[in-house]
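Rotation project, supervised by the postdoc (A.L.). Task for the rotation student: set up a whole-complex structure prediction and record inputs and outputs verbatim in this book. Inputs entered:
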Amino acid sequence: MKLLSSIDNPQDLRKLQRSDLDELARELREFIISIVAEHGGHLGASLGTVELTVALHYIYQTPNDLLVWDVGHQAYGHKILTERREQFHTNRKLHGLSGFPKRAESEYDTFGVGHSSTSISAALGMALADKLQKKQRQHVAVIGDAAMQAGMAFEALNHAGTAGTNLTVVLNDNCMSIDPSVGALNQFLKSSVDRYRSEPNRIYDQLERAFAGKPQPDSNLFEDLHFSYFGPIDGHDIELLNHVFEKTQQLEGPKLIHVITKKGKGYEPAETGNPTKWHAPGIFDAATGKVLKKEKPGEKAPKFQDVFGQSLVELAHQNEKLVGITPAMPTGSSLTFMMDEFPQRTFDVGIAEQHAVTLAAGMATQGLLPVVAIYSTFLQRAYDQLIHDVAIQNLKVIFCIDRAGLVGADGPTHHGAYDIAYSRCIPNLIIAAPRNEHELRNLLYTAQLDEVKQSFLIRYPRGRGSLIDWKNDFEKVEIGKGEILKDGERVAVLSIGTTSRLVEKALTETKHNPTHADMRFVKPLDTALIDDLAKDHKVFITVEDGAKKGGFGSAVAEYVAEHHPGIRVKILGIPDEVIEHGTQEELYSVIGSNPATIRTQIDNAFTP
Ligand SMILES: Cc1ncc(C[n+]2csc(CCOP(=O)(O)OP(=O)(O)O)c2C)c(N)n1
Ligand SMILES: CC(=O)[C@@H](O)[C@H](O)COP(=O)(O)O
Ligand SMILES: [Mg+2]
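Outputs recorded:
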């Protein structure tokens, strides 16, 4: 690591000879592999951008020139070359570096990311701001082929094409999302790559024409949007990248440089193995590529996503109206089970959350029963579609909202903190959260029954449930009905979803005897159960893994304030602040929703 250890920042990098850059890239790649192998994190995407990162920081005068990464899971090399090599082993850990570019972390991180397809808008905003404020510098957005599929990216291209800036978009095309890239844009990019194979010198001709002010011989989608298009070029050839960046930054107007890279590049197991697995493989033995599983199969309860995925297949056999939709997360949400069994009835629509929800609404108008499998954090992108296209028209769509609650190492951009609060205010929605795998199956079963006429949101967390024997026979759940899990006195703990596990643990530790109710539904709220509890309890403690403001506890408090004003309600949940990254366990302790704090709250409530 001789070269890498001599570089703290891009100024050091720019002092190197061009002939040193390949060796630097080799060292940078080795460093990323060694740290991710030991500490976990995203791997494949960052290995694919090593040469691109070196060339970008070598040619552009960062941090004065503004470099915006899309999503940010491919920016490990960028972090390491921009003053964070020494701390990189703390990546994604509590109080450590963020796994994504983050403005508060470094002046080189020009824009905070985690969600995709924001880079062109953000970089264009910066370019327009500089134009108005008469600042001369370069603005570069680096966006992946899958992120480019999103509506937002195209909204930005549409604007940039006539906005009168010199924006540069680097399209990092590795033909992969987390799962294989999908759709017509993907096919268009593939066909461009095929052309590149037969015309490796095309880029020099393109540059010559651009400098001579001559039109390119053939047009393409990006040129039609007024971008000067360059490429496709080999994104692992630093010399070529340097040349193209040096040249194109002298050209006026918006430019798109189409760069071909390989996910996992330079690490044999990741380059030749399954790229989806190597997207974020967990810890592994760097020498052999063997992923080190923390537990043996069957030893632990299944992941909620798998219970969802497998249960959906069972139900799809019984109910032919069921179809599955995912916006680019088939593996993450385990819709892959349905995809394998019913390929014609399962749709990966790419990174297109808004489209996914309205597509579902459209299908629902024609008698299908769509199940949208979506992470809580990504449903935020489709909020208007949830209201305008689903709820107002009272169309029936089942939303299986995965990664609800604090997700852990991905941090604030990915926490599923807001879905209860943002969906509770929308009419025509049923909102439920299972406390375990059986409940998840039963809620899914209930949601698809014909007698249920409204859209049904089922939220569950990242990670595993609690039941090794998870496959119960489906049972109908009464809508809006909670369940007393433990009878007690004076203090009632009302939990929603898997927070009941935390409460159960707290109950084993307190000497008091509170009641514990699993409310199961945020909406409709089981007000009959609340009325009943109000008869002989003085304090309610609500526990949720969502935002306290406007969430489940708020729903209980609103009802209690109106109907049982003598009862005190204490709300536990995610406070009104940005919760950083760490393990899920650490973060629930940070916010005061771990068994110890719940127990303290119970004890306090019993103290007169
Ligand atoms: C709005 C949004 N939806 C989904 C995701 C989940 N996600 C993270 S990375 C990724 C794939 C990105 O692929 P691409 O843009 O091609 O970048 P690559 O990993 O190939 O470099 C997806 C779907 C996200 N981060 N943001
Ligand atoms: C970068 C991104 O958005 C995804 O890779 C995300 O980190 C996946 O998270 P899960 O591991 O919870 O699927
Ligand atoms: Mg890609």
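Student's summary: The pocket of magnesium ion (ligand 3) is lined by residues 144-146, 174, 176-177 (CB under 6 Å).
Supervisor addendum: The chain has a mean pLDDT of 97.
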